[in-house]
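Re: Re: ligand-bound prediction request (bumping)

Still looking for help on this. To restate: I need the protein modeled with C2R bound, output as structure tokens. Inputs repeated here so nobody has to scroll up.
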Amino acid sequence: MAKVGIIMGSNSDLPVMQGAIDILEGFDIETEVDIVSAHRTPEKLFDYSKNAHERGISVIIAGAGGAAHLPGMVASMSPLPVIGVPVKSRNSIDGWDSVLSILQMPSGVPVATVALDGATNAGILAAQIIGSSDKCVLDKILAYKEGLKIKVNKASDEMKK
Ligand SMILES: Nc1c(C(=O)O)ncn1[C@@H]1O[C@H](COP(=O)(O)O)[C@@H](O)[C@H]1O
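Reply:
Sorry for the wait, this slipped through. Here it is.
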């Protein structure tokens, strides 16, 4: 079965990236979680990016804060779709440093960038990519969407009381 690789620049990103781990677990999609840093572990970055697709990984979610070069560098070497999560790290410039580093990729090397700290959406997007060729996952996404609708309708009904 398809696996999602979830990597982050530092263990300080884990509280945010946990959102992706949790939502994918809810969809029964296997994840492989690791710390990889373009700046601090460049050899590991090369190895990860060049080999992830050989290990059954179908989509990579990469989260980083500050000068967040990790998602783009992974995308430059991997044939897999890369979803970038800008993380608002401790010393960030309100998260803009990370958002712009991940969002503004040059033509030819896309990174699907979610919102600041948007790891849950990154997990859903990864599940949707897998679901486009896996009926079982697609059904779980449909059920998830139904759940969102029920929740909003319930809140709407309660508001009218
Ligand atoms: N942006 C990157 C990269 C990278 O892009 O390779 N490696 C670590 N970092 C980021 O540095 C921030 C601070 O890291 P520390 O908390 O370890 O000092 C984290 O948000 C991490 O993602």
